[in-house]
Amino acid sequence: MNSRILVVEDEENIQHALKLNLELEGYNVVVCGNGNDATRLFREQRFDLVVLDIMLPGMDGITVCENIRLFDGDVPIMFLSAKNAASDKVLGLRKGGDDYLTKPFDLEELLIRVNKLVEKSKKIQHTDIPQVYHFGPNWINFENLEAHGVAGKIALTKKESKLMRMLIENRNNVISREHILKVVWDYTVIPNTRTIDNFVLSLRKYFEDDPKNPRYIRSARGVGYRFVVE
């Protein structure tokens, strides 16, 4: 599935040029010209990168960035702005931006930066784990989706297996619900994140002696989950 980019730019010539050149690079591009639409689109759809102008009609780009960060702490945001003072760049980065490119910009440089940020969005912190992974009295065979938990043998679904693999590969690190949905479910339109919570409840029943006080699959309140090995 091609990576999806939200371009928020009110200058039509720049907006059209960005859309054309990013699409030529193979990206799916959605454009809008004001901050209110940007916030709405981001909440309704899945994106791998946001290219965000700062000086926008209505809601400015810094506020849009702050709103996005309340909803998703992982998606890369690249500011694209005529403001080139060091203080403007520092503010953008402090408010949650990952990169800051000033206008006028070199197209090739922009495309290189976009590619790096999209790769960052896709990247999961992979660590080598065996085909059969053991934790406590439990084990999971990721090849045939079989597992052994507190009540004996379990046949995992593909999504249950993929979610457990993602948590284990990122063990001891918090993963946001939104990022889990993007990777495990690959939704273009993100549904209610209760989807994740319900799957986690099932996994805890499989592998936790006390699902209400989990040892392995722990919550990070308001953010997501992490798999803990001690």
Can you put this structure into words, describing what you see?
The structure is a single chain. Helix 2 runs parallel beside helix 3. The longest helix is centred in the middle third of the chain and has 16 residues. This protein has eight helices and twelve strands. It has two domains: 119 residues, Response regulator (Rossmann fold); 96 residues, Orthogonal Bundle (Arc Repressor Mutant, subunit A), CATH 1.10.10.10. It has 230 residues and is α/β, with parallel strands linked by helices.
Topology:
Layout: E1 4-8, H1 12-24, E2 28-32, H2 35-44, E3 49-53, H3 61-71, E4 77-81, H4 86-94, E5 99-102, H5 107-122, E6 132-135, E7 138-141, E8 146-149, E9 152-155, H6 158-169, E10 175-176, H7 177-185, H8 194-207, E11 217-220, E12 224-227
Parallel strand pairs: 1-2, 1-3, 3-4, 4-5
Antiparallel strand pairs: 6-7, 7-8, 8-9, 10-12, 11-12
Identify the notable features of this structure and list them briefly:
alpha/beta; 230 residues; 41% helix; Rossmann fold; 4-stranded antiparallel β-sheet; 5-stranded parallel β-sheet; single chain; Arc Repressor Mutant, subunit A
Helix content: 40-55%
Shape: elongated
Straight-line N-to-C gap: 36 Å
> Which CATH class of the largest domain is shown?
Alpha Beta
CATH superfamily of the largest domain: Response regulator
Largest sheet: number of strands, sense, barrel closure: 5 strands, parallel
CATH architecture of the largest domain: 3-Layer(aba) Sandwich
Number of self-contained structural domains: 2
Number of helices: 8
The structure class reads alpha/beta
Number of strands: 12
Which sequence of strands runs across the widest sheet? 2-1-3-4-5
CATH topology of the largest domain: Rossmann fold
Low-confidence stretches: none
Query: How do the SSEs run, as a string of H and E?
Result: EHEHEHEHEHEEEEHEHHEE
**What fraction of the residues are assigned to beta strands by DSSP?**
15-25%
